[in-house]
Amino acid sequence: MSVLIGRLVELGVIEGLLGDLQSDQGRSLLIEGEPGIGKSTLLSSVLSRAAERGCEVRSATCDEENRQFQLSRVSRVLGFDEAYRDAAPPEPAGLGDPVAARVERFLTLVDRMCVERPLVLGIEDLESADDDSLLLWRRLCRATAQLPLLLVGTARPESRRSALEQLRREVRGQRGVQLRLGPLGPQETARMVAEETGSPPGPRLIGRLESAAGNPFYIKELLAALVREGQISRREGTTELVDEQGAPAGSVVDGPLAVLVSSRVDFLTSETRATLRLAALLGPRFTVAELVSLEGSTPGTVLGSVEEALDAGVLEPVGPALRFRHGLLREALSADLSVTERDELRRRAAQALITAGAAVETVARVILPALATADGWELDWLTRNVSRLADRVPAVAVELLEHALPHTSADDPRHALLESQLVGVCFLLNRFSRVEELCRGILARTSDPHRIGQARWLLGITALRGGRYTQVLIEVDAAIRDPRLDAMWRARHSALRALALCFTGGPEAAGEATRVLALGEELGDPTTMGYALHAASVLSSRAGDRTASLAGIDRALAAIGTEPALIDLRLGLLGNRTSTLDDLGRYREAAETMALALGLAERVGAPRLSALLVQNASRCYTAGRWDDALAELGQVEQLPPGLRLIQHGVAALIEMRRSQWREASHRLAQLDGVEVPPGWPSSGGNLLVARSLAASRAGRPHDGMRILAVLLSREYERNMETRSDWLPDLVRLALAAGDTGTAWAAAAAAARDAEHEPLPGKRAAAEWCRGLANADPAAVLAAADLHRSAGRVPDLGAALEDAAVLQAQSGDRQTACGTLGEALAVYHDLGATWDSRRATERLRFLGVRASGRRRPKTGWDSLTATESRVASLVAEGRSNPDIAERLLLSRRTVETHVSHILAKLSATSRKEIRDMAAGRDQ
């Protein structure tokens, strides 16, 4: 139809969205309504209008049967897999979660596509989408705020799946539009009949069509059935029902809707119905080539059936593919088949697809529903293809493997392969309890040394992933005693033992690491060498020798190279290398190393990505890049409990120092009663400081001091390498509480830390604590200089504040005023309004007044330093992935910065940012 009948309002909304898109303003549109109400027709209208305006257009259809195949339908129809292979070098398989990696690929590709021209993505039947596709769609909704991207999805309103409800909230939260399509009225129904038949309907026909309840699909189907049964005639320029006595007995038009729809399918030849039943196995959309494979006949035969189905309105073309015009038509094709007949059809179809060499996902879609009656014919195919399937849709691979194992006996050569694959995929999906169950079963049954070694290794690594170091020692000791292990597996487990001893404080750790490294070099085994060198580097770091630690890390990275099985170790080493370089003051190299780790983890969907984001957020906090820190933390998902302490500690501390007390209090409340273990990295101390600050603000300074006093215990001195970062806070609180004993104890602890490891941060802490304890502003200013040269901005501001207080207390108010001004300038750049207020009040009490600059909340001058750099690169027309590479940030962090920039500039698109930047340059 040239005009969508009864949808003028909706078309007006669409025109507005397309107009915004051509002005570089993205939006999202969710079209909801009952089956047949016209959602697909409206979506097709959007896509065709967008294509006419020069937009890039892609579309896909979801279906319930394929919900287990995460992202597969979306990636296949949108063509993202092929496009990404052309746009980026491939990564080795098996490095991480392939679904998470593909989500990141899609988002990166969309970013880059939108730089070229506006992009419109359409998805039908979102209620049938898998959760990962809905997650991708939600994240794309957020991207519409800063990209020329229009998302159009359709869904049934009655669906209340949690993931779909989240999507609805995301659409509303990102200025998206929800359209609810209602039924057509009598006049609109009459117009539809007139367009279909060439003349307006008479009153009896209008009355008969009332049973369709204004649903366009039902109206058309009922009208078509009336025509087929000869119940319509044209007379005097009107289309009308024949006399009631002319209606045939048992008319389908008097039956329920299912009978009505079935009549459209029953009208086809038996050959065409048989072809379409096979097509229905492939989902709502398929190609002629796939049908030919299923039929096992000539293309000409299939084309004849396709043409008949197209003429009958059962199928319709969509690009190079075909689809069923409505899901009810697919249902009608199989309604007369028994379960046995349907399963047999699926079996024949699967075998035909296997013979034709069809894609593994296509075969798996057909096999999955027939598993209950499968009798072994599918096992050979699964054995040959499970690796590829696991790399594409691991959850489906698990289901097929769990089915296959009971159908193969222990002496079947396929059993061992399938079981090993299942263990690997479960480990990839973090299903560790199932991994342990399977591994213990393997150890009880097999005599294969390699499988025994692999099973014992996974038991040890699983415990290591959970931080259960004592359990690691139990597992590896059992492995080393196992006479079935060969020399290489014994060496690998010894290396794992050396690493666990590093964290449990075992005195033999150093000797074990040296011995195992020599053994690994003798065997030429990258795994043994990598873990042994990792252990040695940890020991060097704890001994205070960062240079030796860095050398060990670099040797380990060289030893393991890009071995796919060692990706987690590689990422862990890169994270440690970043920290070590920071400690040594080699900040540019540290930033480059972290960018390398984040980029790799994002590309492969590595589980360690969240840990790296938290680590980088801690680095950003120390460097005063608080917006970067919050942006990184905002991307974190599914953290283990220990890392959640770091995540919330860093975020709460920033929120407190920016006077966002409600948000910080809510965050700290989630961790009530949770202790910070002394063995955790230094970032865990941020939670202690945040709790101390909250107590002090609540009028409980002694409680604030006691919270930090735990840093003086032997456990923290031995295990928390950079506890000295927070000792100046403890000295200050102790002096304010009149507890000079604790103050001097903290100063002495800082001095010991600096003597043990004279790094810039520890030397600064020692000078700062000594200056506070002795009321010596010169020592505190020396600490401030060290922090300034090390780029530790928040510590610089706090040291300057303390120095100003000491100067004022000594009577030098003029110098104190200048020092306070420097501190307030630092706080201004951080947005640390609480620090500014505290410093001003402390000095006012001593008779010193100084006014600090206030950053405006909106406009170009409100942008932070990082936001200004990002805005300049946006103005150059660069995409978010390109900006991320330039600034050594993650793509998602850049996305967060762009959102903040748009809000602060009251801009609605990247184009407006470019225009504003051009105006400033004139």
Automatic annotation (TrEMBL):
Keywords: ATP-binding, Nucleotide-binding. Residues 856-921 form the HTH luxR-type domain. It comes from the Bacteria. The keyword Manganese does not apply. InterPro entries: AAA+_ATPase, AAA_16, P-loop_NTPase, Sig_transdc_resp-reg_C-effctor, TPR-like_helical_dom_sf, Tscrpt_reg_LuxR_C, WH-like_DNA-bd_sf. Gene3D superfamilies: Tetratricopeptide repeat domain (1.25.40.10), Winged helix-like DNA-binding domain superfamily/Winged helix DNA-binding domain (1.10.10.10). PROSITE patterns: HTH_LUXR_1, HTH_LUXR_2. PANTHER family: TESTICULAR SOLUBLE ADENYLYL CYCLASE, TRANSCRIPTIONAL ACTIVATOR DOMAIN. This is LuxR C-terminal-related transcriptional regulator. It comes from Streptantibioticus parmotrematis.
